[in-house]
Amino acid sequence: MMRNMRNPEDSVFSNLKERKKKLAAETLEVEKSLRIEIEVCLTDVKPFPVSMSLILAARLPNPKKCIPPPAKENKYIGEAVRALPTRVLTVGKTRSPGVQLLLDEYTEKLKCYSSFEVLQIRSNPKKAQDTTVQIREEDIAVMSTIGSSDWVVLLDEHGNELRSEEMAELIARAGNTGASRLSFCIGGPYGHGPLLRERANVSVRLSSMVLNHQIALLVLIEQIYRAWTILKGQKYHH
């Protein structure tokens, strides 16, 4: 009785062989069917002979269309740019030691390109309870620091949003205006007053989102530094 019993492993291997043969036969049938369909497609297209390479080329994207257009070259790169003394006027104090550390770092870097300073103006100098009065007093305080020959850039949420390359062009254009100084203005918690808005030569925004004035100051100074590296063709900006 023991001699007539079949080994279970033999049964498993036998089933696997049968399934493998069946799968191979099905694969062969599919290949034949595909070959027939391709031949029909190639012979039915008239009057132009069509090759498989043309069919594949029609399905693949044009590699030239996948390449993005080259970025607009900054016309001021490599040109002599008049470096105006630059200031950032900001309403409010920088209270974060970490932010101040970064501000000091970029301020020192910017001094390699032009005279640069940050002037902090006291927020709500007369401690007014009324928002309108506070805006007016801050407006007067900022205007008292701006000279008649300053070229003024207003940082405002409704201003024009610039790419870094466009910021570089803005700084270069300012040097060709005949102005004696370039002044960037960051407003207080309630924004700029009407006097400064009327005086500004251009209005730009750093972001569509509202930024804390300390963060706005840091982002602005970094972008001014980046702009100069673009104008000088240096490797900071990629």
UniProtKB/TrEMBL annotation:
UniProt-recorded Gene Ontology molecular function terms: methyltransferase activity
Record has Transferase as a keyword: yes
Residues in coiled coil: none
InterPro entries named among the record's database cross-references: Alpha/beta_knot_MTases, RlmH-like, tRNA_m1G_MTases_N
UniProt GO BP: methylation; rRNA processing
Keywords: Methyltransferase, S-adenosyl-L-methionine, Transferase
Residues in the signal sequence: none
Family annotation (PANTHER family): METHYLTRANSFERASE, RIBOSOMAL RNA LARGE SUBUNIT METHYLTRANSFERASE H
Family stated for the protein in its record: Belongs to the RNA methyltransferase RlmH family.
Protein name: RNA methyltransferase At5g10620
